[in-house]
């Protein structure tokens, strides 16, 4: 065995030598039995305790003393004893005591429950403990200093820097730039790992000094590559999180030349994102076409109590919604009742992705917002974020002063006049929204006051929330997706901004007769010129416009646009303006088409003036240094370019000096692994290399060096390059600011193109078989809706079989209302919804699926369909029914269309029938509005005999018995005059697979009850007839008798 191996073996043997008292002689032992081992272990433990009590020890704090007791218990199983060894050689007593002390320290460390972390924290203390021996000759080497980079139990300077930023933004997930990665720390890392599917390295999760994490000395962390930041940031934002990006704001070269070269990189929060504020150079959030747009509206809402309580409660509400991605701003102030139907209507129209609640709102309003937006399966199609702003007693005055100061600082003082007359609740919301968007750097969207639009403008029909849902205007009622909705049936748009405009058109039908005629005329002209060169070229132009120009323009306005995107926007606008500048493009006769086409050529000079600054090849490859043409370089750019050229010339001249030192005729620079200006020297000639040269890399045959002059010149060049990059960024920002001053004319041009896209889409709908242009009756005509062979616009696209058409008329003075009866599943609801949708389509400006439709404009469509409760407000199904009915009775006018489906079914038969009777009578006799009333109370049909303007309709069917005696109903889905006196509910129950024995009992009971009812009616008819014989002059009795006979 080698000497070194022998020495190592002796050391290991001595460490595991059996421990015995110093007074006991050492004798060879044979290997003991198990019982002897246990006895020796107990004696050894007792002896160790005795020896330990005699040795001097350093004083320990109370906590450490208590801890040592626990350590001793844990160390019991690791106690060293000679019974586990075979016969060991005799050693010197001093060496034995030294080994015992080493063993005691070893067990003390490993016996602690947190041995490793406890050892790290106390490493320095353990190294300085003075161990005294009886002979006093034991020698201990001093403890070694901790290695560089070893954990010391403290956060790194970079983590402290992150913690300082995090404490200011506890509600955001921070993504921190660290070298060539972006990292998450603490709880943020855990959330990112869950949402992004990346690895989270364990560590501290909390950002405070909680004792539960005292044993951890590093934050939990996760990381992503730099180039994947946009992808992962969008995923986090789409999941509903608020995301902040912390970047290094100084570069390595500038830091090396600065005074803070030995400190961490300066980092600052450069970007904050949420769903509604994600305005970035990488475009909007990924979102399927079904559902609401991801980068949607931020809605600020404030509420004050007006009067009343309970069902008489009235609140005054102010809202302001802004879509930073497009610059659209909607505001409104209104009074609302205890059902909060007005708030529901606006929320369903706007579909906000974020709420900013100013001050306190009532529990009913809170529950309404939570009901509509608190889950990912709600009617908005996404979970909405909610933030709150406290409201002081003087909020109104503070908001007015803040808004005034905000607009007073603008160069265009006319902006102030546009907002000074806004209602007080709207000003409160505007002030809160300005402060909120200031955190994201988007407050300048409110400079665009031309985008302010009132929600309650009287030029459009206001469709309430109940109607939006029951008619499935934006989303179907099954899974709340867009497929199967009215918007889905109309959407043939080719551009994103055209699609958004059509979305507005569908939800806000026109009340202006002139504007509606212009829209229908434009659709008719495009339909007539279909397949002509003009229309085909227009469609081709729209289809080739892949960019979302509306969003790109607002990113230019926010100075968040990239160089390739700016080039694409300007070139797209140039192509569009050039197309409409041709004489052939101005071939439209319709005023709406002609005005839209004429609005595009004027932006051509403006676009060309900005394109002159840009070098297209460099812009496409995002080359900031060559992005601007040479003629438009700034003085700073010229200075730094000259400085870089001077440094590179000096580097080239330095080759002569380097060759002289190496005693060569010449030397050449090489570039290896991205490192430039390396000088290669064969390893055999390395002696000629000056000592001041720095070796960078090498191989077996040669080495590569940087000379001191090269290193200095490269550092100088890097500084100038980074300064040049900053100058190029400044010049680009100046160009964006210059273009932003012309935002409004460019936005108007894009709006004109969106109008053309919507009209082309409606013309494609009109080209479908069986569609016709609606005939708008004069405004002076009596309210009328007359339709022939009409069909449901969505059902005919989704049904496998053909839709059965219907014809009907509603008009003043008669028939003013239809009372519709028929069997369950007979098509009653489909009929009334189809008629309502035809009216809606006509006032949007679309052709309708019918042979003929003539109508006067309806100022509103009110619906009360379906059975649903309102648990969040503590309201039963019947309470919801009558509350919505009360709202309809309060707001309907003679020019409204009212649809009531099975009113009164949520309570007892007598009460429900009485309420339905009274409401129908009020609608026909007092309000005189056009009404469609569905009911299963066949007794209401008697109203038609004494109430002028009401007639009875029913859905046709055929009933016959099968071989088993079961009554089979065949639905014909045709509308006909008359009353259906049975609903055939048992037939529907059989279709729903109710057990046959249950159906048998139900059929028997139904026959029994029907027989009893007929018997009572027959008796009543007999008594009435008897009265007539005794009193022949009673006209009322005669009428009652005739009605009874008809019912029988």
TrEMBL record:
Domain DNA mismatch repair proteins mutS family: 896-912
One Gene Ontology cellular component annotation held by this UniProt entry: nucleus
A Pfam family matched in the record: MutS_IV
InterPro entries (alphabetical): DNA_mismatch_repair_MutS-lik_N, DNA_mismatch_repair_MutS/MSH, DNA_mismatch_repair_MutS_C, DNA_mismatch_repair_MutS_clamp, DNA_mismatch_repair_MutS_core, DNA_mismatch_repair_MutS_N, DNA_mismatch_repair_MutS_sf, DNA_mmatch_repair_MutS_con_dom
Primary location recorded for the protein, binned into one broad class: nucleus
UniProt GO molecular function: ATP binding; ATP-dependent DNA damage sensor activity; mismatched DNA binding
GO-annotated biological processes: mismatch repair; mitotic recombination
Protein's job: Component of the post-replicative DNA mismatch repair system (MMR).
Protein family per UniProt: Belongs to the DNA mismatch repair MutS family. MSH3 subfamily.
Name this protein carries in UniProt: MutS protein homolog 3
Source species: Ophiocordyceps australis
């Amino acid at each position: 065995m080698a000497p070194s191996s022998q020495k190592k073996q002796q050391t290991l043997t001595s460490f595991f030598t059996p421990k015995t008292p110093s007074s006991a002689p050492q004798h060879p032992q044979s290997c003991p039995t198990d019982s002897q081992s246990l006895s020796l272990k107990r004696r050894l433990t007792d002896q160790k305790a005795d020896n330990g009590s005699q040795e001097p020890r350093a004083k320990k704090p109370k906590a450490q003393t208590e801890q040592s007791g626990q350590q001793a218990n844990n160390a019991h199983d690791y106690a060293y004893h000679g019974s586990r060894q075979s016969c060991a050689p005799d050693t010197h007593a001093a060496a034995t005591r030294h080994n015992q002390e080493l063993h005691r320290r070893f067990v003390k460390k490993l016996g602690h429950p947190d041995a490793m972390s406890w050892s790290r924290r106390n490493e320095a203390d353990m190294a300085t403990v003075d161990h005294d021996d009886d002979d006093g000759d034991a020698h201990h080497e001093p403890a070694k200093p901790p290695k560089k980079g070893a954990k010391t139990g403290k956060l790194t300077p970079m983590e402290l820097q992150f913690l300082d930023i995090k404490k200011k933004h506890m509600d955001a997930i921070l993504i921190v730039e660290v070298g060539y990665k972006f990292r998450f720390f603490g709880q943020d890392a855990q959330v990112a790992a869950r949402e992004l599917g990346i690895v989270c390295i364990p560590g501290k999760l909390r950002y405070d000094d909680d004792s539960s994490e005292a044993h951890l000395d590093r934050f939990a962390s996760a990381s992503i590559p730099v180039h994947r930041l946009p992808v992962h940031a969008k995923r986090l934002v789409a999941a509903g999180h608020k995301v902040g990006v912390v970047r290094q704001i100084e570069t390595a070269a500038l830091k090396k030349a600065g005074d803070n070269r030995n400190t961490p990189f300066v980092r600052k929060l450069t970007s904050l994102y949420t769903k509604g504020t994600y305005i970035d150079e990488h475009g909007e959030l990924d979102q399927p076409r079904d559902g609401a747009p991801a980068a949607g509206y931020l809605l600020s809402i404030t509420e004050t109590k007006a009067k009343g309580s309970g069902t008489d409660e009235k609140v005054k509400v102010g809202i302001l919604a802004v879509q930073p991605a497009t610059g659209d701003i909607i505001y409104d102030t209104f009074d609302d009742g205890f059902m909060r139907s007005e708030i529901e209507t606006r929320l369903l129209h706007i579909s906000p992705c974020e709420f900013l609640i100013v001050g306190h709102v009532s529990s009913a309003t809170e529950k309404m917002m939570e009901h509509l937006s608190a889950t990912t399966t709600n009617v908005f199609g996404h979970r909405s974020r909610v933030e709150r702003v406290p409201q002081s007693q003087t909020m109104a005055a503070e908001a007015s002063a803040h808004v005034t100061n905000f607009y007073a600082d603008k160069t265009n003082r006319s902006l102030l006049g546009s907002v000074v007359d806004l209602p007080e609740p709207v000003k409160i919301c505007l002030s809160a929204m300005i402060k909120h968007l200031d955190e994201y750097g988007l407050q300048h969207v409110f400079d665009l006051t031309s985008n302010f639009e009132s929600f309650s403008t009287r030029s459009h029909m206001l469709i309430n929330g109940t109607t939006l849902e029951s008619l499935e205007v934006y989303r179907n009622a099954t899974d709340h997706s867009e497929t199967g909705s009215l918007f889905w049936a109309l959407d043939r748009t080719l551009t994103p901004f055209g699609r958004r405009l059509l979305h507005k058109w569908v939800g806000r039908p026109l009340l202006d007769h002139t504007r509606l005629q212009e829209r229908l005329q434009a659709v008719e002209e495009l339909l007539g010129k279909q397949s002509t060169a003009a229309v085909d070229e227009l469609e081709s132009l729209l289809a080739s416009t892949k960019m979302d120009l509306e969003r790109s323009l607002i990113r230019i306005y926010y100075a968040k646009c990239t160089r390739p995107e700016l080039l694409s926007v300007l070139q797209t606008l140039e192509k569009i303006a050039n197309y409409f500048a041709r004489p052939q493009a101005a071939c439209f006769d319709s005023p709406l088409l002609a005005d839209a086409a004429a609005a595009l050529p004027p932006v051509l000079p403006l676009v060309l003036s900005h394109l002159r600054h840009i070098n297209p090849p460099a812009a496409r490859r995002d080359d900031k240094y060559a992005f601007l043409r040479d003629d438009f370089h700034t003085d700073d750019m010229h200075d730094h370019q000259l400085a870089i050229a001077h440094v590179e010339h000096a580097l080239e001249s330095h080759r002569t000096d380097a060759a002289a030192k190496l005693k060569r005729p010449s030397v050449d620079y090489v570039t290896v692994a991205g490192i430039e200006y390396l000088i290669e020297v064969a390893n055999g000639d390395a002696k000629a290399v000056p000592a001041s040269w720095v070796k960078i890399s090498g191989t077996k045959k040669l080495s590569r060096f940087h000379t001191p002059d090269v290193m200095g010149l490269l550092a100088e060049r890097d500084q100038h390059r980074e300064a040049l990059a900053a100058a190029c960024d400044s010049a680009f920002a100046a160009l964006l600011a210059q273009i932003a001053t012309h935002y409004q004319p460019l936005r108007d041009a894009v709006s004109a193109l969106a109008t053309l896209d919507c009209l082309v889409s409606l013309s494609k709908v009109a080209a479908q078989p069986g569609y016709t242009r609606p005939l708008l009756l004069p405004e002076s005509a009596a309210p009328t809706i007359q339709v022939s062979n009409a069909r449901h616009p969505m059902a005919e696209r989704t049904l496998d079989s053909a839709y059965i058409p219907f014809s009907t008329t509603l008009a003043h003075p008669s028939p003013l209302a239809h009372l519709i009866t028929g069997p369950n599943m007979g098509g009653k609801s489909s009929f009334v919804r189809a008629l309502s949708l035809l009216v809606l389509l006509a006032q949007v400006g679309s052709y309708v699926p019918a042979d003929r439709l003539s109508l006067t404009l309806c100022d509103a469509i009110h619906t009360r369909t379906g059975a649903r409760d309102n648990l969040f407000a503590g309201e039963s199904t019947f309470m919801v029914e009558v509350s919505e009915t009360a709202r309809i009775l309060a707001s309907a006018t003679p020019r409204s269309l009212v649809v009531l489906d099975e009113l009164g079914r949520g309570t007892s038969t007598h009460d429900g029938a009485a309420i339905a009777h009274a409401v129908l009578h009020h609608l026909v006799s007092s309000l005189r509005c056009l009404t469609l009333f569905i009911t299963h109370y066949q007794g209401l049909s008697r109203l038609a005999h004494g109430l002028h303007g009401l007639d009875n309709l029913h859905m046709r069917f055929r009933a016959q018995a099968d071989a088993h005696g079961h009554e089979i109903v065949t639905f014909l889905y045709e509308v006909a005059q008359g009353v259906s006196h049975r609903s055939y509910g048992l037939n529907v129950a059989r279709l729903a697979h109710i057990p046959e024995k249950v159906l048998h009992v139900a059929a028997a009971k139904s026959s029994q009850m029907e027989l009893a009812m007929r018997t009572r009616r027959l008796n009543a008819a007999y008594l009435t007839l008897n009265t007539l014989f005794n009193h022949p002059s009673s006209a009322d009795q005669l009428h009652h008798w005739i009605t009874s006979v008809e019912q029988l």
